Amino acid sequence: MVDARHATGQHGEDEAAALLQRTGHRIIARNWRHGGLELDIICETGDTIVFVEVKTRAAHGLTSPTDALTHQKRHRLIRAARAWLAAADAWDRACRFDLVCVTQRGATCTLEHITDAFDLTETLGGGDTSWQPW
């Protein structure tokens, strides 16, 4: 049996994937896992690979979806993206990290798509550090 929190998260990811497709993104993978790492949605738009984190919250929740994208979570997303790029041999592709915030209000939800959700130099602690090893 699926617990309520998992069902809420899955519904949010379904809504986010539909939004991305409506806005011209091509879904490559969903819930991609490598070891203990996971990427919610991997898609592409134009020549850019987009790693999308989906955060779903109830409207009455204590934290906003954007607050859930902590420094530690950003590091895990970068590690997961590196693993996917290695597995797909896609190191030469431009990449970015997006966030889709899903706020549920009863049977309806609102979605906010934030492109380039975080600055990689801030996350990696240096102005010249590239997260992709080339």
Key words describing this protein structure:
134 residues; alpha+beta; Trna Endonuclease, Chain: A, domain 1; five-stranded mixed beta sheet; tRNA_endonuc-like_dom_sf; UPF0102_YraN-like; Restrct_endonuc-II-like; UPF0102 protein DVU_0833; nucleic acid binding
Describe the model.
The chain has helices at residues 4-22, 71-88, 120-124; strands at 26-34, 37-45, 48-58, 94-105, 108-114. The longest helix is centred in the first third of the chain and has 19 residues, at 4-22. The protein starts with a helix and ends in a 10-residue tail after the last helix. It is 31% helix and 36% strand. The protein has 3 helices and 5 strands; from the N terminus they run H-E-E-E-H-E-E-H. The chain has one domain: Trna Endonuclease, Chain: A, domain 1 (3-Layer(aba) Sandwich), CATH 3.40.1350. By secondary structure, the chain is of the alpha+beta class. The chain has a 5-stranded mixed sheet with strand order 1-2-3-4-5. It is globular and about 45 Å long. The model is unreliable at 124-129 (pLDDT under 50).
